[in-house]
Amino acid sequence: MIDVHIHAVPPYLPGTGSLSPLLRQPPAVVAAEIRREMQTSGVEMAFAMGTWNCPEDDPLGINSTLQIAEQVPGLKAIGVADPTRTDDAHFRRVEALLAAGRVVALKGYLGYLHFEPAHANYRRYYELAAKYKIPVMFHTGDTYSPAAKLRFAHPLGVDDVAVDHPDVRFVMCHVGNPWTLDAAEVIYKNMNVWADLSGLLVGTDEVFASEEGREAAVELSHAIQHAIRYSERPNRFLYGTDWPLAPMAAYRDFIFEAIPAEFHEQVFEANARLLFRL
Predict the structure, then answer these.
(1) Cβ neighbours of residue 98 under 8 Å, at least 6 residues apart?
(2) Parts of the chain with a pLDDT under 50
(3) Domain residues for 221?
(4) How far, in Å, CA of 256 to CA of 259, rounded?
(5) Total number of domains in the chain
(6) How do 237-238 and 2-7 pair as beta strands?
(7) CATH of residue 17
């Protein structure tokens, strides 16, 4: 099982803070908790987001994530594509990291940062992603911050760059929730677009087990199933949790029930292996 979307460090995006008190703990503490969660839920590999707005010597915001990954077998880093950085020196440092294989993907925080996917400031990231054959992931849909602007996070924005950059593989995180059907149309239309199923239901084990949590899970399951049917592309959906916003084992069970059994192998592992060339 591959979890393509977790957090090992605070993203520190505008209005989000650290996401969880756990992420402010020392690296060894965070690493131990990730190991425990992965073992409990049967996750073999997990991909963790970096931090935004880091110093020049950390151009993708991955240094802290890599420090934790050294202590967690199977944990890999996803670098933050920061559209506020446009200088040549920055992109030379970014390319050096990509050439060294330090990240499995780049992540654009649509909505949190007020840049549409087609903004010129993202273009060089796409060119590097194509050159080094790594996906570009985007936050899409609802945000965790009142400072975010939702129009930048709508999945239809991904259609623009999917057309303009056919050599780049794009991932819509959270399958654009609540615009899951719009996201499904983008997947149906474009052969270079995927979606992850992370962060659709968040909270503690108690929240997942509550009556309200179970009702939400049923509603979300219908939306996921509709998106898969509409897109006709079960090979384009990826498993992710958004941990620590959701417990790994509880989220695994939620997605297990939400996804038709015939697609379990694809969604939980095979699709990620193909997309990330594992």
Answers:
(1) 128, 131, 132, 134
(2) none
(3) 2-275
(4) 6
(5) 1
(6) unpaired
(7) 3.20.20.140
